[in-house]
Every structure is written in structure tokens, then in C-alpha cells.
Amino acid sequence: MRLVVASNRVATPAQQSSGGLAVGLRGAMQENGGLWFGWSGDVKARPSGRPRIVSADGVTYATIDLSPEEHDLYYNGYANRTLWPLFHYRVDLAAFDRAEYPGYQRVNAKFARVMAPSLKKDDLVWVHDYHLIPLGEELRSAGCRMPLGFFLHIPFPAPEVYKALYNYKRLARHLLCYDVVGFQTRTDVDAFLAIAAQIGGDVDSATGTVQAFGRTVRCAAFPIGIDVDEFSRLAESPSAKAQLKRQLNGLGESNLIIGVDRLDYSKGLPDRLAAFERLLADYPANRRRVTLLQIAAPTRVDVPEYVDIRHELETAAGHINGRFAEFDWEPVRYINRAYKRSSLAGLYRAARVGLVTPHRDGMNLVAKEYVAAQDERDPGVLVLSQFAGAAAQMDDALIVNPYDIQDVAAALQRALVMPLAERQGRWRRLVDGLRAEDIVWWRRSFVEALAGVARRR
Ligand code: ADQ
Questions:
Q1: Which end of the chain is more exposed for a tag (fewer CB within 10 A), N or C?
Q2: 273 near 281, Cβ under 8 Å?
Q3: Atom of ligand 1 nearest to the CA of 366
Q4: Whose CA is nearest to atom 9 of ligand 1?
């Protein structure tokens, strides 16, 4: 069966810096012959409405442009100013502008209009993430009968938080138009099942099955993984090593703590810096000996909350350096840009501690990449937020409450002095877990669940 993927952005072969997820999805489509639909990333005054088609290595890519208004309402609006903050428990940041949802809906309808004519009845369709929740229902209205699956990359919030959304019933009904709905963790599944029951679904929690509105929907956790070998290979590559030497020049013998994130308020960055400051204040032996390298790549720069967080972090990093720096030691290196995967892998490997402290995160792949990049003879320690989906699989990390600055500072101290044997033991168990549930396992499990729908029919 052919696999058809729809996602907000499409990683076409021309884009060199495709991340692990893009490579994983492309792999799935290459296995079955596939089609990938999505937004081109371009905003045009008068978008043609016809997709641009490119084919390479057994995969066809079809992308469409958006108009400025569509981009504002769908992407910057309902997706990133309503759903993103709300699903990350930031009800205080969520915009409830009633004009944005219809714009979001229209872009989903446009996706469906473009996709439907090229779908065949024995295709499997896999829709990704919060930008495209209504797409399944739109495809059904266009007469598509094949199995439709949806995967949510971000958390599904607790029912009381979710119900702060003015049109939460409508959104949940959109989700119930798919045959398979996948989440990152069991907690997300349970939160959604609770909502499904509240809006009239007949829910079997044990099997994750919902009967609602004349359909049967299977809900399950499919925690996303990474390509473990790719990261460990990248970390050892000569180019990573050469670059690393340049990048680390000037850090001297410092022990490195690394944070790598998109610059997003969900990632808990101000509290992370505060915890590092607390480490230097409470455990003064680390002064002059430990450096925090925080790499934060700007994203969603048109959304005002992202401008605010950027200013806040610049101030916080300056404050710590002002308080503790010596002429030959700067405690925080704060870098505002994206890095190549090979450079990241080298930096992960060089860092004694990987610090991943989101306030909320669907999964968090940085936590997994950090572990995969370690040298088994001398592995570093992962300090991980209990509110990242990854914490459900990675209990050999030092699990922290990211809001509790003292707790995070104490875990950093513990990581910095952890004996080699304990580091090796923890790392071995973590990496075995990553291998068992890697990116190939993830996509195959989801596609298999969708294929099961087709077989049962
Ligand atoms: P993100 O919120 O983007 O993803 P994450 O899972 O950490 O978060 O993935 C980020 C990816 O981007 C990683 O592969 C990382 O290496 C890369 N990256 C981050 N900062 C970078 C930088 N400064 N330079 C270069 N690369 C950088 C969403 C959800 C997550 C979920 C993923 C996948 O929010 O919870 O894990 O999707 O499902």
C-alpha cells in the first residue's frame, strides 16, 4: 500500500538540513512508494492553488504556497497562538481570536482539495500534527474512504486545560474522524480519551478504542524515536571533531553543560538559566570550571511571544555573566542560531551534561540525540524534565522538576560529580531503550496500525 503523508512543512530533497523526523518519514515513503503533501514554506500574494510537484528516490513531493492572510490566520494564528500555547499548558499566552479558527479551517480544506484527486482507494494516509487536525474530516467530506491516521507531536493537555479552548468539542470531533490517532505518551492518550468520553464517545480505555459519531477510532501511544547510529556516527566523524576543536576553543578545561532548543517559551529556558546560576551560587567549586552552552535557534519570529522570550533570555544570560564571569571564564555561552546536525552531535559528545528542561514537551528529541552521541567509554549524564514526553521512556536520566530551580541545580551538581561506573550503567540502559524504540520502530508501528485498519475492512 502506498503511504501518503501530510504535514505543515515538507522536507524536499533540495533542503539539505532535513532533521531526523524528515529522514524517518522519507524512509517510510521510500519503503512503500509515497507521496508527501504540505506547505512549501512560501507566502505569495496570489498562490496558484496548484501543487508544485517534485519526485526523487521513489517519493513524490507536492507543495502549495499560502497567501499572507492564510499564513497569518492558520500558521501564526490558530496553530501557533492558540493550539501551541494551550497544548503546552500556557493558557495565559493562548489567543482566543474567533476569526483565526475559520482561517485555519480554510487552509485545511485547501489541503484536502489539493490532495483528494491524487489519492487512491488503497492508500494509507498519515497526517501530522496540530496544524492539520481538521484535514481528516475534510478528506472524508471529499469522499476519501481509505484509512486515515493522525499523529500529534505535541502534548495533549489535561482535560481541564484543553477545555479552556472555546471550540474544544469541534476540535475533538475532527480528531475522531481519523481511524488511528497517535500520541507521544500514554498520558496524552488518556487525556484525549477523557475528552472523547465527555463529548459522547463510547471509550474502552484498555484498548484505546473510541466509538463515536458512527466511527471506530483507535488511540495509542507511539513515542517517537531517533536514528541512534546516525547520531553516534556523526559525533565521531572527522568533520565534527575538527569543528568541535574550533568551537570549544577558549573554553579551556571547563566542564560543559549543553542545552539545545528551538527558542520557544515551552522549553523552560529562563528557569534553566536560573538553575545554572543557582549551581554556581550554591556549589562554588564549579566557578571557573563549568560552562553552560545554550544553543537556541529562533523560530516563529512573527509571533510576539517569541520576541519577548528572546529578550528575556538575553537579559538572563548577561545577568549571570555579569555576576560570575572572570576575565578568563564566561559561565554562559548563549548562541542564537541553528547548528548543523554534525556540529550538534560533536557538541553533545563533548558535553559532560545534557540539560533538557522543558516546562512541557511532546517528546523532546534533543534528550535522545544527546544520549546517542555519547562515548560509551566516558558518557555524559542527561538531566531531563519530568514534563518532557521522553521522561516516560528515559528513567535512567536524572529526572527533575523544571520549575524547581533548586532541584535542577542539585541534579546538575550530581551529574557533574557522578562516578564513571554509574554514568556508564545509566547510559547503557538509556541507549538500549533508544535502540529498541527508534525512528524506524516508530514509523513502522504507526503504519502497521493503519494497515491493520485496511485489513479489518
Ligand atoms: P520540537 O519542539 O522542535 O519538536 P525537539 O523534539 O527537541 O523539539 O526537536 C527539535 C529538533 O530540532 C531536534 O532534532 C534538534 O536537534 C533540532 N534542533 C533544536 N535546536 C536546534 C538548533 N539550535 N540547531 C539545530 N538543530 C536544532 C516537536 C515537539 C517535540 C517532539 C518533536 C518530534 O515539540 O516534543 O519531540 O516534535 O515529534
A1: C
A2: no
A3: 7
A4: 365
Separation CA 391–CA 184 (nearest Å): 11
Contact 360, 334 (CB under 8 A): no
Give bridge partners of residue 215 from the DSSP assignment: 212
Where are the chain's structural domains? 3-225+439-456, 228-435
Domain 3-225+439-456 and domain 228-435 have a common topology: yes
Q: Tell me the pLDDT band of 187, cut-offs 50, 70 and 90.
A: very high
Position 250 scores a pLDDT of 65
For 10-23, what is the mean pLDDT? 76
- Residues serving a catalytic function are 153, 361
| C-beta of 262 in contact with ligand 1 (< 6 A) | yes
Instruction: Tell me the best of 127, 260, 266, 368 to mutate to test the pocket of ligand 1, counting ligand atoms within 8 Å of each CB and taking the most.
Output: 260
Cell of 83: 493550539
Q: What's the topology of domain 228-435? A: Rossmann fold (3.40.50)
Percent of the chain with pLDDT over 70: 98
Of the candidates 276, 449, 245, the residue with the CA atom closest to the CA atom of residue 350:
245
**Is ligand 1 within 6 A of the CB of residue 388?**
no
Q: In angstroms, what is the span from residue 363 Cα to ligand 1's centroid?
A: 9
CA 154 to ligand 1 center in whole angstroms: 11
User: 223 CB less than 6 Å from ligand 1?
Assistant: no
Spell out where 109-175 has E strands: 124-128, 148-151
The answer to which of 52-56, 146-150, 240-244, 307-311 has the lowest mean pLDDT is 240-244
CA 232/CA 319 separation, integer angstroms = 35
Mean pLDDT over each residue of the chain, to the nearest integer: 94
pLDDT tens, position by position, 339-361: 888 889 999 999 999 999 999 99
153 lines ligand 1 (CB under 6 A): yes
pLDDT at 98 over 90: yes
Which residues are bridge partners to 385 per DSSP? 400
Nearest CA to ligand 1 atom 22: 338
Q: Which of 15, 365, 438 to mutate to test the pocket of ligand 1 (most atoms within 8 A of CB)?
A: 365
Identify the pLDDT of residue 27. Answer: 84
* Residue whose cell numbers read 540525540: 369
For the domain made up of 3-225+439-456, give the CATH fold: Rossmann fold (3.40.50)
Question: What is the per-residue DSSP string for 71-125?
Answer: IIIIIIIIIIIIIHHHHTT-GGG----TTHHHHHHHHHHHHHHHHGGG--TT-EE
Q: Which of 151, 310, 363 to mutate to test the pocket of ligand 1 (most atoms within 8 A of CB)?
A: 363
Q: Nearest C-alpha to atom 20 of ligand 1 is from which residue?
A: 261
User: Which amino acid is residue 395, in one-letter code?
Assistant: D
